[in-house]
Amino acid sequence: MKQKKKDIINSLAINKNDVGSAEVQIGLLSSKIEKLAIHFKKFKKDKHSTTGLSKSVNKRKKLLSYLKKNNPKSYEKIIKQLNLRK
């Protein structure tokens, strides 16, 4: 888990000390959403985790809209790298 998180941070970081930019946060939220989606395939009635999933999706959506407005090039890069839109 820690190694996967470090890999995501290294692949999306703007500079070597970057751990909190919008790009990194979007990447970490995407991995959390994927993990929860796998969890829900096994445990369909887990309503408490459903709340966390919806909060994570909404936060990622807000960060993506912020990035699209302020840095369109970075937005396009993130969308392609994380394969979010089809």
Q: What does the model show?
A:
- This protein has helices spanning 2-12, 22-42, 47-70, 72-82.
- Helix 2 (22-42) runs parallel beside helix 4 (72-82).
- The longest helix is centred in the C-terminal third of the chain and has 24 residues, at 47-70.
- The mean pLDDT is 92.
- It is mostly helical and 86 residues long.
- 78% of the residues lie in helices and 0% in strands.
Helix-strand blueprint:
Layout: H1 2-12, H2 22-42, H3 47-70, H4 72-82
Helix pairs in contact: 1-2, 2-3, 2-4, 3-4
Low-confidence stretches: none
Could you spell the SSE succession in H and E letters?
HHHH
Distance between the termini: 27 Å
Q: Which structural category fits the helices and strands?
A: mainly alpha
- How would a crystallographer describe the biggest sheet? none
| Mean pLDDT across all amino acids | 92
Percentage of residues assigned to helices: over 70%
Q: How many helical stretches?
A: 4
Q: What does the overall shape look like?
A: globular
Question: Over the alpha carbons, how many angstroms does the gyration radius reach?
Answer: 14 Å
Care to count the β-strands? 0
Q: How much β-strand is present in the residues?
A: under 5%
